[in-house]
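Sample intake sheet
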Amino acid sequence: MVSLTAFFMNNEFNRTYITLDGFVQVHKYRYLYFVIILTLYILVIVFNFTIVYLIWTHRNLHEPMYIFIAALLLNSVLFSTAIYPKLLVDFLSEKQIVSYSACLCQSILFYAIGGSEFLLLSAMAYDRYVSICKPLLYPTIMTKTTVTYLLVLAWLLPPLELLGSAIHYSRRNLCDFSLAGLFCNNSIVNLLCVKTRLMLIVSFFIMCNLLVLPVTFILFTYARIFLISYHSCKEVRKKAAETCLPHLMVLLSFTCLYVFDIIIIRVDSDFPKTARFVVTLQVVLYHPLFNPIMYGLRMKEIYKHLKRLFC
């Protein structure tokens, strides 16, 4: 009777909780990991909100380009908040576990915020295209209403698209309860007992909408900008280089993160655990710090106010 009860409790526990199996020597280096992650999380919050504060308080930065930058930096803080606090808890816990519902929620947040990042970068690319290629029409096109619509679309479209997948996954049974990762992402699909063709089609559709189409639009837009600026005067070329290169660097950084995420899921069993741990930490930790550093140092107006603030 006791063994039957114990079996039932263990079975119920397995149905509810997932083990995060991507940590390496967490019991040995838990306090070192915790201090590093906590320090980086504080830096992410301080760096990003410093730039947002400068944009908020200086009227000459109340332009669409800087508003989109502020939105992008706030998105970086949301991205970090979706991952870092759970990592901090896991480093100090005896067992790195998460409930299936919480895991599903974190996975949806990870991709929704990532989709918002790509859509915000698309809005910034469109803003730069109108500013450089159609300067006379810029005040008419990039109005406050247009900026508001683009921001609302960037933040609402990804979670709405992913909501259906979340509901569908929540109704599926799990046959595996060990997730090879530090946090919940699309690897959760590998835990399901049955993977239907509908799930693959929906996942492909969402990936196209939130990753492929925005990146294609951004690259096409910047190609047009550089082509037009190449045949223009020196001032136009300088403006294009100063305002577009930081956006392209941020796009490259974030695209690498998501390409790695897609690859790691496809080669799930062939990727060494230690290599996965190191690369995942580097990719996830560096990008939220990369955004404010890139915009703070490369955008002339922001750098001027930043220098005045500290010097």
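Comment: The beta strands are 17-20, 97-99, 178-179. Confidence is low (pLDDT under 50) at residues 1-14.
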